[in-house]
């Protein structure tokens, strides 16, 4: 369901489903490596359990540890990419400006090393919810200026950032 280490190497952020009769979506948790304490709910870390919406999956932590990307479907069965601060505040949908009128699953978000851009896969489906095509997109870190980079059904999941040498 996704996980990522904070840059300090001492904490890991992960998502896990809470299996209930109502089928609750995955929630975010933080575990301190080497601790005997159980994982804590991510959004309750600052003493405020209603700090922010705690659902989501596939968390990715920025290289500076200041931002987190997650994907969440908001019970719509179509995934969107969200960015938030490392403390769980400031949740912002960065895929909100995508083309409308299409069934899109936006997934596998990754931040550029400087945190100014988000790259992700967008899978366009036809009305029977079968894959029509897959596209690689880039958007500014604040969700503005989405632009398609390439269209293909040959992308590898998950996306990773490979620095040049």
Description:
The chain is 0% helix and 42% strand. It is mainly beta and 165 residues long. It has a single domain (3-151), classed as Neuraminidase (6 Propeller). The protein has a 4-stranded antiparallel sheet, with no helix packed on it. It has a 4-stranded antiparallel sheet with strand order 5-6-7-8, with no helix packed on it. A 4-stranded antiparallel sheet has the order 9-10-11-12, with no helix packed on it. Strand 11 and strand 12 (147-151) form a beta hairpin. The protein is globular, with a radius of gyration of 16 Å.
Short description:
With 165 residues, this protein is an all-beta fold.
Which oligomeric state applies?
single chain
In which range does the helix fraction lie?
A: under 10%
Q: Numbering strands along the chain, what is their spatial order in the largest sheet?
A: 1-2-3-4
**CATH topology tier name:** Neuraminidase
> What name goes with the CATH superfamily?
TolB, C-terminal domain
How is the main sheet built?
Answer: 4 strands, antiparallel
């Amino acid at each position: 369901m996704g996980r990522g280490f904070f840059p300090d190497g001492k904490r890991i952020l992960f998502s896990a489903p809470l299996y209930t009769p109502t089928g609750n979506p995955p929630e975010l948790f933080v575990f301190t490596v080497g601790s005997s304490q159980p994982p804590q709910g991510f959004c309750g870390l600052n003493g405020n359990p209603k700090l922010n919406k705690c659902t989501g999956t596939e968390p990715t932590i920025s290289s500076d540890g200041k931002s987190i990307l997650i994907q969440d479907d908001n019970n719509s069965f179509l995934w969107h990419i969200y960015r938030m601060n490392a403390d769980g505040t400031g949740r912002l949908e960065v895929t909100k400006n995508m083309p409308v009128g299409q069934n899109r699953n936006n997934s596998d978000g990754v931040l550029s090393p400087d945190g100014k851009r988000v790259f992700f896969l967008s899978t366009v489906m036809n009305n029977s919810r079968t894959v029509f095509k897959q596209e690689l997109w880039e958007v500014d870190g604040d969700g503005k200026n989405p632009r398609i980079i390439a269209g293909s059904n040959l992308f590898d999941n998950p996306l990773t950032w490979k620095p040049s040498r």
